[in-house]
Amino acid sequence: MEKVIDYEVTGIKCDAKGCGYRDRSFNFDVKQLDAHIDLKCPDCEAPLMTKEDIDSMKIMIGISDVMNAAGVDGIAKALNVPISELNGPLFNVEVDMDGSGKMDLKEPQQIKEG
Ligand SMILES: [Zn+2]
Question: 64: which strand partners?
Fold first, then answer.
């Protein structure tokens, strides 16, 4: 079944003032998100992930998983719209977090024509 929302949980950065640590290639294990709470910055040893950020990630992943389980057909039925209305362009949205649990959604970038 075609995914409604595809996600990757990648990239980590240090939010400590003055520390510029960033690793864009870091891959989170989405099945064991809590294991990332104890990660320390390799440069300054500040915590890299907070429980608040991990809890927000779990919510976003949960919403994505529910939408994928429903599929495009299920969502069209739930919204009572023809499926053709849901076959639009594809967008990539980057989400930035700062340790507060708040998610900063960046400007969507279109990656495929509808
Ligand atoms: Zn740091």
Answer: none
Contact 21, 7 (CB under 8 A): no
Within a domain: 113: no
For residue 44, the CA-to-ligand 1 centroid distance in Å is 4
Tens-level pLDDT at each residue, the chain (114 residues): 678 898 889 999 999 999 999 999 999 999 999 999 989 999 999 999 999 999 999 999 999 999 999 998 999 999 999 988 887 788 999 999 988 999 999 999 999 887
> Looking at the DSSP assignment, which residues form a beta bridge with residue 105?
95
Find the 48 Cα to ligand 1 centroid distance in Å.
Answer: 8
Q: From ligand 1's centre to the CA of 16, what distance in Å? A: 6
- Domain assignment present for 23: yes
Q: What is the count of structural domains for the chain?
A: 1
* CA of 45 relative to ligand 1 center, distance in Å: 6
Q: Is residue 57 within 8 Å of residue 9, measured between CB atoms?
A: yes
Domain that holds residue 35: 10-108
- Any domain includes 5: no
Whether residue 15 lies inside any domain: the answer is: yes
pTM: 0.82
